[in-house]
Structures are given as C-alpha cells and as structure tokens.
Task: structure prediction
Amino acid sequence: MVRFVAVAFVLSSLLAGSQIYAAPAGDIVARQIGNLQCNIDRLSIVTGLADTQKTLKTLSTELASDETAASSIKSIQDSVSGAQSAIGVIGKALITGQKAPAEARDQVLGNLTVAHDALAAINSTDSTAAADLQKALTQLTNAQLAGEGVVNNCK
Result:
C-alpha cells in the first residue's frame, strides 16, 4: 500500500506539474515539476522511509523485552512518521502548484535527525535484532541522502 501511495504521489506530482499554467514564474514551475533526478530523489525518500518503518515494526517485536530499546523504537517510529507527514504537506503543495513550505522541509530534517541519532544509540546483543538495527540505520541514512538530493536537485 505504501509503495502504491509513493508511486501515486510521484505520478500525481508529474501530472499536476504538467497542468500548472498559473504559476508565477517559469523557474518555480520547473522546480515544482522537477527534473528526472529530482523526482527519483522524491520517490527514494518516500519509499526509503516506508521501508524504514517496516524494519522498525520488526524491531519493535524483537526488542519488546527491553523496555528502554522498545521505548526508543517507538520514539523513532514517531519521528519517521513526523517526517512522512511533513513530506505529505510538501507533496500537497507541489500538487496544487504552491511553494513547498519551508517549515515542512525543516520538520523533515529535524525528524530524520532525531530518528537517526536515537537509532544509532540502540545496541542489542541479539544477532537478529542487531542486524535489523543496522538495516534500519542504513535505510534511514539512505532516505536522508535522498532528502538531501531533493534539496540539491529540485531547484
């Protein structure tokens, strides 16, 4: 379902972008629609965060007996959800031809930073949980890199 929403978001962005005639300037229209790399980065952050959430769900089960780790995983899930919500705000702005709110971009960055730092601080002696912790950290880092790509390539 999440992948469907991500693909629908990208396709809707492209479709909506092609329908924007009342945008104030050509530069803003180009930024909103984005080039191929921009749209790849947009899709990558959306799917990367969805994959991270799946891994975090697995970790919440694996680390359920460790109250501290379980609490940290819940906080990380909330931070990733916050980033996803802010991306949704940005997506709605793009679809309607509006400028993406800077506050939403700041929320994405802030939530991903908090999630990354909290995830990096968790340790587990269980080999399966440790592998999933590393997997989640890699997924989150890749999503952050895609977010940086959006900032750099969607100009």
